[in-house]
Fold this sequence. Notes:
The chain is 46% helix and 15% strand. The chain is an alpha+beta fold. Strands 1-4-5-8 form a four-stranded mixed beta sheet, with helices on one face. Strands 2-3-7-6 form a four-stranded antiparallel beta sheet, with no helix packed on it. It is globular, with a radius of gyration of 21 Å. It starts with 10 loop residues before the first helix and ends in a 5-residue tail after the last helix.
Amino acid sequence: MDPSITCPQSDELGNLCHRLAQAAGKWSRVSDWPRESLYQCGQAAVFKWFVPKSHGGFGWSDRDQTEGYLRLAESDLVTTFVITQYMGAIRRIAASGNTELAQTWLPRLMAGEAFATVGISHLTTSRRHLSEPVLKAKRVAGGFELSGMSPWVTGGSHADLLVVGATLNDGKQILVAVPGDAEGVDARPGVELVALSASCTDQVAFQNVRVDEGMLLGGPVENVLQSGVGARTGGLQTSTLAVGLSLAASKYLAKEAGTRSDLREPADRLSKDVNALRKKLLEACNGHSAEEASEIRAEANRLVLRSTQAALMAAKGAGFVEGHPVGRWCRQAMFFLVWSCPQPISHAHLCELAHGPVSLDLGSRDIHSQGSNS
Ligand SMILES: Cc1cc2nc3c(=O)[nH]c(=O)nc-3n(C[C@H](O)[C@H](O)[C@H](O)COP(=O)(O)OP(=O)(O)OC[C@H]3O[C@@H](n4cnc5c(N)ncnc54)[C@H](O)[C@@H]3O)c2cc1C
């Protein structure tokens, strides 16, 4: 058994990250669920970082969790992304006040002996334009009945427990834990995606699924995710993973610049920008406003695209060949354009992309005039 990783600066975390990075290229398609890397994280007690001491975890501070996630994401984005959804479920169980459920599930989940995930985006960033909720709940004797589907659930078909949100007829919402093998639950195996297919993300359908009152984590209330068991949509976690991936790309560029003098200036510039955002992110862990979180998210989205594409330009055609890490990073960077991206940020970024570069000083009037809209 690996020694537990008890702080984000530890050598053990460096060793784990090295192993994760070595295996990262294997997690490519739906058939490649990163079981082995998740197992290694479980053995190194990674899942305890995120759980309060009162529930048997290590209770790492937000800053330490962020540092930990940065290092994991730099090594292997697929496994780290799966962990965020897994920890999303664990965190909501721990925060729910449902002691019995927490005592039954948390020890196995923290040990990596059971896997849980979340299906909540239909309450925040997915299917919000539809007139009817995609997952409905109705009160029945002793609990609730769920009907409909949760459109995006990472690792749903691998989950022993699903933490899902659903809407009642009166508009109030509940958050419940549903065993993956409950009658009427149909977790699809995963769809092939532009990137992160191995996260096995897919719909989970619920056909008249009975959920006992004892599995309730929150609600019924309006906006259940803004209550104690709240989501961190648009919070720092998504940005953390984007900065982690940017670190991988900027370090690749810096390594190439070691033998290619023409790359030195852009490599230095990029690593300066990545480190500045990393610092800003870590500072924000001590307290931040919603505006600051949005600003960091917007910067992280820009940086992850910029850094991975700069790495691809340095890697040239070789980086464009399937299997090269830089090509994988470029595809993964696009994930941040769609993952849990609050509407105002996604709209602002869309406008920025549509407007094109404001000024490109390439010394040629023809090139300069292209795409310059403002
Ligand atoms: C790989 C991956 C893994 C994910 N994992 C999870 C997870 O584990 N748990 C979880 O809860 N969530 C997860 N998500 C969901 C994610 O956080 C976002 O909620 C999701 O990407 C939003 O995309 P959507 O297509 O559902 O958005 P929607 O807003 O539903 O858009 C879908 C389509 O509807 C149309 N549309 C959108 N807006 C309008 C409008 N205003 N008017 C008319 N038509 C419109 C467009 O044609 C659009 O293509 C995951 C997403 C991805 C890509």
